[in-house]
Description:
275 residues; alpha+beta; 7-stranded antiparallel β-sheet; 11 strands; 24% helix
Amino acid sequence: MDGETPGFTPPQDSTPQTPPPTSAAPTPPSNQPTSGKSPLGSRNTIIAIVLVVLIAVGGFAYWNQKQNEKELEELLQFLDDFGDDFDYDDYDYDYDDYDYDYEDDYTYGDRDSYLLEESGTTGFSHFSDLEYFFETDYPTAWEVDVDDSIVAATFLSPYEDALDYFSENVNITTEDVSWYGDLTLDEYRDSSLGQIELALPGYEVVDTGDTYLGSDEAQYILGKYAMGDFDTRILSTFALDDYGTAYVVTYTYEADKVDLYQTEIDHMLRTFEIW
């Protein structure tokens, strides 16, 4: 494993193992967020970089997103060109003939289809996603973000002190891959890995293998990647449900802090359940 230790302990061989039982984890550190200036500009800048990496991990999702962006750009260009040749003076349109209420038609980037509850484990809360059909425990001290249009949920660690500029984070995405037929975990892993290497020049695979995501058989990819001044590790664990949906849990952390939240990440992965 090239001297690296992933943020959890995977099975030592490819033979399916009995899923580990969910057990109470030690009380996590009571770190509280503190302020500080990031050399990259702001905490949001770092989060944005991490999300770029995350999107690349879901190979099909990354490709589809880029295709949608390209098609949208082409549509906007067409409308712009069309507008240059359109003479609005030729049309007398009375907008008063129409009474349309735009209020509450759409909510984009902010949803309420999730629950935050107490957990039976000290130091953890419980997250249930009613839109993407999964649940997991997460450290109570971590921030929860569900406002991204691509990522189902993001969990952000507090800063350790005023000199801590990187927020360790767990991102969860889902992807409908049912149109690919009987896609296997091996095929999904290979596609994801190919997209990561295309999207992130300099990315290196540290380890891959079989594991469990909650009670579901899963695989993981552990890679290393330099984000500006940060030497990071990206641990992605993914599973497929019976309906053709891929679930990807990505933990991004600084390489020299592999042990900082290992207990918390182990617990999150053990308590992750797909409905």
